[in-house]
Amino acid sequence: MAHQHVILLIDDEPDLRESLETVLEVEGYGVVLAEDGDEALAHLRRGLEPCLILLDLMMPQPLSGSELRATRTPRHLK
Ligand SMILES: [Zn+2]
Asked: Could you read off the pLDDT of 8-25 as tens digits, one per residue?
């Protein structure tokens, strides 16, 4: 049986986070929420390995894609 897919959802808008979380959980995904890039990086540094990262690119304190990749590059891309 496949593992439960985990999605890291990064958005500064609480309403959007909650509605997306609800939709994704109904579909059977595990959801980890972060309200900004720092919180997302903290999750990743603690060992979270999401299948998918949903990142709001228009946040007040955006997290650059290169910074995120530098933090955790999937093994097959190294
Ligand atoms: Zn997965």
From this structure: 999 999 999 999 999 999
